[in-house]
Amino acid sequence: MATPYLVREGMEDDLDELHRLMQESKRNGTNETPVTPSVETLRTYGFTEPTYFQFFVAVNPVDQGETSSCGENTSLVGYLLFCQSFSSEVGKIINLKDLYVTPGCRRKGAAKEMWKAMLKFAMAGEFQRVQLSDKNADPELIQYLQNYELTDLIQKEGWCIFNMNKTAIETLK
């Protein structure tokens, strides 16, 4: 079955909708406004050199303002956000940071098509690995990724992931 969504690379004009979807994804069923990067921060780090992230979006197939088959009347119903890094072990790596589809639009192929778009990007750019590290990753996302043969390296190979927050960085300057 073909997806009812158009999947394409994210553009600067998408940032307001990307921000809305980021907030929606972090809300976790609460009415609290979650802390996410501002639209201006997204613009600075996604559309000025050097860029720190890239994204793909799933676009609602109906005209803006109309309601789609999943009940949404916004133009974007999902996003996949990633960044690039380098490993001395294998070379270029894609770090998947977030994959989200509005709940009413799930199970209609949007996530799969965004995933395939990112993999095509990875193959064209000769990336050697795609990885995800996320605090409190959504169990549905983890299950979805395991269906595509992503491996939990902490569990399987005993990898360690360390993180230094801004306060710790400032104390060492």
Structure in words:
The longest helix has 15 residues, at 110-124. The mean pLDDT is 83. The protein has helices at 15-27, 39-47, 110-124, 139-146, 153-157, 166-171; strands spanning 6-9, 54-59, 76-87, 91-101, 129-132. It is globular, with a radius of gyration of 17 Å. It has one domain (6-171): Gcn5-related N-acetyltransferase (GNAT) (Aminopeptidase), CATH 3.40.630. It is built from 6 helices and 5 strands. The N and C termini lie far apart (55 Å). The protein is of the alpha+beta class and 173 residues long.
Describe, in short, the structure shown.
With 173 residues, the chain is α+β, with helices and mostly antiparallel strands. It has six helices and five strands; from the N terminus they run E-H-H-E-E-E-H-E-H-H-H.
- The CATH C-level class name: Alpha Beta
Q: Strand share of the residues? A: 15-25%
The CATH superfamily bears the name: Gcn5-related N-acetyltransferase (GNAT)
Derived from helix and strand composition plus strand pairing, the structural class reads: alpha+beta
| CATH fold name | Aminopeptidase
Please tell me the overall pLDDT: 83
Spans of at least 5 consecutive residues whose pLDDT stays below 50 are none
The tally of beta strands, per DSSP, is 5
**CA-atom Rg in angstroms:** 17 Å
CATH architecture: 3-Layer(aba) Sandwich
How is the largest sheet built, in terms of strand order? 1-2-3-4-5
Question: What is the string of SSEs from the N terminus onward?
Answer: EHHEEEHEHHH
